[in-house]
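Sample A.
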Amino acid sequence: MGSKGPELPRRRPRFSGMHGWGGTCGEPLESTQPSSLHAMSDHRPNFFIIGAPKCGTTSLAKWLSDHPQVYMSPVKEPHYFNRDHHYRNIPEEDAYVRLFDGVTDAHWAVGEASVFYLFSDVAVPEIEAAVSGARYIVMIRNPVEMAHSLHEQQLVAGNEHIEDFETAWEKSDRRLQRKDVTFWCREPKLLAYTEVCKLGKQIERLYETVPEERVHVIVFDDLEENASREYQKTLQFLNLDKYNRTDFSAHNTAKERTSQWLRRVVKGVNAVKQSLGLYRLGTGIMDQLDKLNTNYRSRPPLSPRVRQDVARYFEDDVRRLSGVLDRDLTHWVNTQGP
């Protein structure tokens, strides 16, 4: 966990169409299907921040994007490879390819961050089929805190309509059946907090597909304790030069919408734009309205009873996670007290 990864080619990677990706990273590839993409771009990502949500992925993506040898997709969470979810901000191949048009020879590591790739049944196998030797960064945290924070985030995003966490938590099974959701919810499965936050199950599945040396796991507790240390470990995993970064400010912290009506208008407009192939970069009028409609605040804590119930639910999965990572994390869900 966290060891130095396989050597990255120190030259610009190439591809000739998503379905034709394969071979040695850094060499021209022959497409197995006719594609018009080759003339559009000869770049591709070679590392992916695949989750989990509310575990520091936005902050890490921002910190990495400032490194001179790193190129990060200008759209966070394209979720192109989530073919089993409706939550795909960039579903078309051409649009996904264009995200990497800005890659130059100076960029040794080319990445994107899509936090539900880890939860998806197909995303990692799809990436493995498309990108030879891809590296994966996984960020994890106490699933009790993760579930609570994710519920808050989904409320802010307008996907969740049940404000009480306990009520929403209890409806997880129905969300898996695409029930008890509103028209505005893009992917009901992502409101199944009981499943989205089972990190032990998901990482165990990841290791069944990807060799351990191509996976770097960051525990949120370690990031909070010493962000600089975890950042340098990540650079080492990506075979990048050490970078003397001093600002480790958190990004995507807890917030709320002043007007849910305005939030839904913004979501509706952005959905129409996406259907027309117009993807947002966070700079349009709708995005500015959304920012004006946002207040940042501390998240109210869970009651001791709810916290204990949720912790008890995750006990088996955290033991599973501890075994996979060879690190005892059971204190996350200790309901017995010291």
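Sample B.
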Amino acid sequence: MAKRKRVYLEEMVGRVNANMILPYPPGVPLVMPGEMITEESRPVLEFLQMLCEIGAHYPGFETDIHGAYRQADGRYTVKVLKENTK
């Protein structure tokens, strides 16, 4: 099994995602395991960040994002594959 680590959501560009990231509602996966967030797919990342900000500013309107983990500072982390350092 590949080694994983957590990075902040905004640091995902250029990394391989380790878990499915699925905002609920609506419950549609946006990022699949093994998928790399690139500059071309940055709008997906920005959408996830927007959902996090809405929940922070408007209590009761939070979106549960499966695969993203809220930290004490309010930022979200996700699991990515560690880079191979041979």
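B remarks: Residues 4-81 form a domain with the Ornithine Decarboxylase; Chain A, domain 4 fold (CATH 3.90.100.10). The mean pLDDT is 90.
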